[in-house]
Design brief:
The complex is a heterodimer of chains A (143) and B (140). Helix content of chain A is 81%, strand content 0%. With 143 residues, chain A is an all-alpha fold. In chain A, helix 1 packs antiparallel against helix 3, helix 1 (3-64) packs parallel to helix 4 and helix 3 (80-107) packs antiparallel against helix 4. The relative contact order of chain A is 0.13. Chain B has 140 residues and is mostly helical. Chain B has helices spanning 3-58, 73-106, 116-138. In chain B, helix 1 runs parallel beside helix 3 (116-138). Chain B is rod-shaped and about 95 Å long. Classes of the chains: A mainly alpha (143), B mainly alpha (140). At the A-B interface, helix 1 and helix 4 of A face helix 1 and helix 2 of B.
């Protein structure tokens, strides 16, 4: 191997290492975005659980208030299915939000966040939504 | 093929791979925005459902005249959710546009994949949510 050929190969290796490190960064960014999307989908699932819960509860109330059924004196208490579904939604949003917080704190140790200025927005939304679910539960149980 | 040609070809392939990797990441970001917009829409739907259910249960014609208040707990509960949806669509959109601006500095957009479509739809959902909020709080 000539000296010229050796230096060309060394230059190529340096180039490859440089390109690989940039590609590694893009790959890490994709992992981060994937995790954020997972949180978004989990919030969506929590939302669906709560919607189902509230639909069961409200339809139950509506049916109990129908004139031909109201005479039977059916209770206006919330059904256990609705309470369970809303609680599941709260739990899911809460657990997903906290898990994501742990993930981004570990991720940001040695990498920069791909979406600057908004890393904490998704878990904030998850926790706000969980808080809303808790309020909903209180209203359903107390009201 | 000479050694120099091979080296040049490897370099070219690497650059193309890097561009593809960047494009995949950009599309990931756009898809992430889309998921957030869908979640925001879900919140708005939930908000409206809560408000309308409250209205329905308070306004049943056969019940002894339960007064239909303009702003019941259900309306406030619904409005909070719609507002959360608007906030979600807006902030995620702003974040996406910031990312797209930084991305454009170093890479080309994927073919016919500028940020305009996703960003405009996110903005439209936010505008729709604001209109919904006004209707919810101003009218029954």
């Amino acid at each position: 191997m000539t000296e010229d050929s050796g230096s060309r190969q060394l230059e190529l290796l340096k180039f490859l290492v440089e390109q690989s490190s940039v590609r590694w960064e893009w790959s890490a960014a994709r992992s981060y975005l994937n995790s954020e999307r997972t949180l978004g989908i989990l919030i969506h699932t929590a939302l669906a659980l709560m919607i189902f819960g509230i639909a069961i509860d409200r339809f139950g109330l509506f049916v109990h208030r129908l004139p031909w059924l109201a005479a039977h004196g059916l209770p206006d208490t919330p059904s256990w299915e609705s309470v369970m579904l809303i609680s599941l939604g709260v739990l899911l949003a809460l657990v997903a939000g906290v898990r994501y917080l742990f993930f981004i704190s570990a991720y940001s140790h040695n990498r920069h966040m791909p979406l600057r200025g908004g890393a904490f927005l998704p878990p904030i939304f998850a926790l706000l939504f969980a808080a809303y679910g808790v309020a909903l539960l209180v209203v359903i149980l107390v009201h | 093929m000479s050694e120099q040609d091979t080296i040049e070809q490897i370099k070219l392939l690497q650059q193309q791979l890097l561009q593809l990797s960047a494009e995949r990441t950009y599309m990931n970001t756009e898809r992430t925005l889309s998921v957030w917009v869908r979640t925001a829409l879900g919140m708005m739907i939930f908000g409206i459902a809560i408000d309308r259910f409250g209205l329905l249960l308070h306004g049943l014609p056969w019940l002894p005249h339960e007064s239909v208040h303009r702003l019941t707990l259900s309306t406030w509960g619904g409005a909070v959710l719609v507002a959360l949806g608007v906030l979600m669509a807006l902030t995620m959109n702003i974040r996406f546009l910031g990312y797209a601006r930084i991305y454009r500095r170093s890479h080309d957009w994927p073919v016919k994949h500028g940020p305009y479509l996703a960003a405009s739809f996110a903005s439209l959902v936010a505008v729709f949510g604001i209109a919904l909020l006004i209707i919810l709080l101003a009218f029954i």
